[in-house]
Sequence to fold (336 residues):
Amino acid sequence: MAPSEPQLKGTADAVIGGASNSSRRSLSPLHHEFHPHGTFCMGGKLAPLVLLMGCQRCGSSSLYEALMAHVRGARQGHPLSGEPDYYGREQHFYATDSWSKGVNHYLDHFPPCPDHKTFNFVIDATPAYMRKPLVAERIPQALPSAALPKLKFMLILRDPATRLYAYWDTFVLAGTGVNNFDAWVGSLLAKVAQCQKKNGDQLWPPPSDCDTDTVEGVAAGLYAYQLIYWFHRFEAKQFFLTSLSAYEAQPQVILKDAARFIGADADLVGNAHTLSGAKQVELLHAAQGTMSDWARHELGKFYHPHNAQLLHLFNNQPKATYSPSIKGLGIQSWTS
Fold:
């Protein structure tokens, strides 16, 4: 049986063009134009029709930097005054309070609209977008209806167990700090079990009556639920999917496929054989070593049915772009 769409509590069922009139009135209309070669501008600025939206701690920053360095027509964003440097790459507009500042504030992160001679594009590479249902609701409120079918959604996925280890390394160990991953996993899975007793097996989006901060860490790896939601709101042909392992093994192939998907020239600039940004997806605290066999077993057991569901979803969704291929994503090794 094919997986069904997640039922979202307290979230409007927004479809393309289905934003409420009151929502649309809250955003000032801006002049927009499509150039003959495909460049899209709003309010005199290059506007992102490419969203590299996840997953977090899966290599999206590395992929973004490689696209900027090696794909013709790629233009970088920039942070505004008082913002951290990474806001040039990921603007967080659709997922945070930045939304209240309006579309003009968002577009100020991008270069002025270029001439009509060549194809130029910018990317919003906010890795939290994939797991935030609110993002899919807000996109049709911010963009003109003519732009919605031209949106390109790019995702780089990772074995959710190793993604969770990297999440702990970055946000837990480096923060308030549970400095033993096994202890953290044991506590996490106990809280997850309690949440499922109250709400059923579905953990995405994290139920509001659970320990949201804790459950959200594990729920971010439930890719099938998230993608089912997105596939119901946009056309599957608008999605490009790869994996960290595929990207590290075949960077030239992935970048050429990505360039074609975006609509750019697949003749790359420079040498993409070596990924200069690969260190960004490694552990930040190397002294912590690798995941224990116990943690790998427990997380593998938890994620196994969800990984199998993801593979089933992809095998039954031929219109999406998989780079280098569904088999080449390596999901089979996640389920073993």
Notes: The longest strand covers residues 152-157. Residues 293-315 form the longest helix (23 residues).
